[in-house]
């Protein structure tokens, strides 16, 4: 079997970890995603993960109510640390060695991010979970995913979403929206396709990193796509 990508960065949004709940972490879902990571790792793929925080907090929620955006973003970044610890717990339960590296140092809780440390953990076969986004307000964890993918030398950025790829419109709202198999980074930007923010797509484009958009809710889909099957939209040069 030919494996399409040997070193990948997986973006797991907070919404994905929430499962069917309206808020927080559904441990069963976190366990399932950990299982999918385990399966993909068994193919010999090196995997690192960026987790979002939207299931707990988004900075704009503070800003939209007249509060300070920067403080809101700090709260959002802290939320990603909670999710990262949950995912590490799910991975550890099934015997996967995983480490959380935070862009905002909190040494009593997890290790701090540096590229060198991240690469060493990856070389040792650990799943590296990046928390704290980029460590800066006014960014998103999608941008953090593109940034960490570049820093790790990832050959693909897998973006787990609610649906199985990029559509011409939101398929949940527009039933006859069409799904794309392949797009270029420029097409995603020019068509204004809302799959990742502009900063994230531009960073991936600049570093020639393909973005694979797939359904995070489809059990086993991550490894099916890595092995050449499954359903996804591939965004590449
Ligand atoms: N955030 C930030 N800088 C970053 C990444 C995230 O300030 O580099 C904050 C921002 O407030 C964001 C929140 O953390 O709303 C949660 O991240 P995001 O919305 O990207 O999570 P997701 O939508 O993937 O769950």
UniProtKB/TrEMBL annotation:
One of its GO terms (cellular component) is cytosol. Allosterically activated by GTP. Inhibited by UTP. Residues 6-215 form the Aspartate/glutamate/uridylate kinase domain. One of its GO terms (molecular function) is UMP kinase activity. Pathway: Pyrimidine metabolism; CTP biosynthesis via de novo pathway; UDP from UMP (UMPK route): step 1/1. One of its GO terms (biological process) is UDP biosynthetic process. NCBIfam families: pyrH_bact. HAMAP family: PyrH_B. This is Uridylate kinase. It comes from Aureimonas pseudogalii.
